[in-house]
Amino acid sequence: MTPHRLLAAAGLALMLAGPATAFDPAAMSAAEREAFRAEVRAYLLDNPEVLAEAIDVLQNRRAEAEAQGDQDLVAANAEDLFADAQSYVGGNPEGRLTVVEFIDYRCSFCRKAHPEVAELVQSDGDIRYVIKELPILGEESVLASRFAIAVLQVAGPEAYARAHNGFYEDFRGPINARSLGNFADDLGLDRDAVLARMDAPEVTRVIEDNHLLAQRMRIQGTPTFVLGDQMLRGYVPLDGMRAIVTDLRS
Predict the structure, then answer these.
(1) pTM
(2) Environment class of residue 147 by beta-carbon count within 10 Å: exposed (0-12), middle (13-18) or buried (19+)?
(3) Quick one: 90 and 154 in the same domain?
(4) What is the pLDDT of residue 250?
(5) Which of 153, 203, 207, 238 has the smallest count of CB within 10 Å of its CB?
(6) Number of independent structural domains in the chain
(7) Cα dihedral: 219, 224, 225, 230 (round 10)
(8) What are the tens digits of pLDDT across the range 56-89?
(9) Quick one: 46 and 89 in the same domain?
(10) By percentage, how much of the chain surpasses pLDDT 70?
(11) Backbone torsions φ then ψ of 19, nearest 5 degrees
(12) CA nearest 245: which of 232, 234, 235?
C-alpha cells in the first residue's frame, strides 16, 4: 500500500471510530483535501469490506443505544407500567417476572401474538401478565377497548379474560353497540350494565392514561411488550420471547 493510501486508511479509520483526536481534515489545504478524498475513495473501492464492517459497528452501537434508552424509559415509568390499579393482571399475580403488553383488538399482529403469549404465560407459571388497552386503529378499536375495560370494572378479571380471549378467538364482524351487546350475552354478562359502563369517565380515564403512558414510552404501534426492563416493539415469536425470559432470569 502506498504512503498516501496508508494515510487515507488511517484517516478513514479515525473518522469511522468517532471524534478525531489528532487527525483534523479541516487543517488540510485544498489540494491536500482533494488528494485525501481521492485516496479514501480508491481505498474503499479496493477494500469494500471496510464499509460493511463500519456499517455493522454503527448498527450495533445504535441498537445498544436504543436498548439502553428503552431501559431508561421502563425505569422512569415503572409505577405506571407494573403497579397501576386499572389494568388487568393475569398469569401468576405473584410471578417474579412481569410481562406488560400494549394491545389493540383490531391489530393483526396482536391477534397473531395472542396464542403465543398465552402459551408463554401458562407454560412458564412464574409470569405476571399485565394488559394495557391501547386502541389506535380507529373507532372500532376504541369500542372494543371500552367494552373490555367496562367488563373488567363491572364483572372482574375472570370475565375480562373471557372477553379478551373472545375478541381474538370468537368475535367476528363489525364492532358496534349491537354486536357488543350480543357478545356480552355470549359471555354470560349483564348486557345493560356493561354497555352503560362503556361511556363512564372511569373507562375513558384508563384509555387516556394508557395513551399518555405510550407517548412517554415512545410506543407507536401494537403489540408492544415490556419484559422486565426490556421493551419489544412489535411481534416476537414464542421461541424468541422464551429466550428473552431465560436471558432476563440468568
Answers:
(1) 0.75
(2) buried
(3) yes
(4) 87
(5) 238
(6) 2
(7) -40
(8) 665 666 655 566 678 999 999 999 999 999 999 9
(9) no
(10) 83
(11) -60, 135
(12) 232
Contact 180, 154 (CB under 8 A): no
Which pLDDT score is estimated for 43? Answer: 78
Whole-angstrom distance, CA of residue 187 vs CA of residue 147: 12
| Strand, coil or helix: 204 | helix
State which of 17, 45, 76 marks the end of a domain.
76
Grid cell 469511522 in the structure block, residue? 16
Which of 76, 106, 139 represents a domain boundary (last residue)?
A: 76
**Concatenated DSSP letters of 159-195:** HHHHHHHHHHHT--S--SHHHHHHHHHHTT--HHHHH
Q: Give the phi and the psi of residue 133 in degrees, each rounded to 5.
A: -70, 120
Residue 53's domain spans which residues?
3-76
How do residues 216-233 score in pLDDT, each as one tens digit?
999 999 999 999 899 999
Write down the pLDDT at residue 48. 76
Beta partners for residue 112, in sequence order: none
Distance CA 166, CA 132 (A): 17
CB 134 within 8 A of CB 210: yes
What integer best gives the mean pLDDT of the chain?
Answer: 88
**Cβ atoms 222, 104 nearer than 8 A:** yes
